[in-house]
Amino acid sequence: MEGEIEPVDCASASKPPRIEIPKVPDDSEKPIAIKRLKDVEICVPIVYGTMAFHLGRKASESQSHRWTVYVRGATNEDIGVVIKRVVFQLHPSFNNPTRVVESPPFELQECGWGEFEIAISLFFHSDVCDKPLDLYHHLKLYPEAESGPKSTKKPVVMESYNEIVFPEPAEGFFARVLNHPAVVVPRLPAGFVLPTPVPIDSVHGKGRGDTKNHPLSHWFMNFSEADELLKIASARQQVRIFFCCFD
Asked: What is the pTM for the complete model shown?
């Protein structure tokens, strides 16, 4: 799902893209056995994208735009409870093209003149997943219908929505994100006894990491509200991308 600052009608988006983490193999033989919750899914709706402003009179041949690439929660909640760090791989023409962001908000700003594909690697906390998830996003600097002078106030926004699904999560992971607003638990078996929740603020605490008051939030695309996320997360026929989470 991509676009240029036009809001998306999430009520009609009955089949959002999902990235489903395959069920992990039996790890009972590991030195410290990890207790996993069968028949349980954790869903983390995310948005990743770019926002580009033309520099106007300050533009040059080598620097025509100021742009930001980011990964955020779909409702701008703090996704640092699941994601530990994000690595952005820029075009090799940039100095230090591999950029590592260790805490939310997961974003970086740069200036340039050309469009290219940005590789985005999500690294999760140790109780979530052992391997990173790789995403790709095209940096877009110019609007589709380009006519008249370029605006320095209205950015070109390209965002993609995805739901990362973790089946059979570790009990500790489940407990600490159970009541977190950035996480959706769409399916629980009847009679399931919930583990004792762990206070979110005491785990991986690095201060406030949501993007609700972000200086660019006015331009974020409105993919859904919290109640719509619950409806979307319950959809079962989605596009799925698989990758191995554990050895």
From this structure: 0.75
Q: Is the pLDDT of residue 238 over 50?
A: no
Q: Give me the pLDDT at residue 216, please.
A: 65
- Half-sphere exposure (Cβ direction) of 23: Cα atoms closer than 13 Å: 9
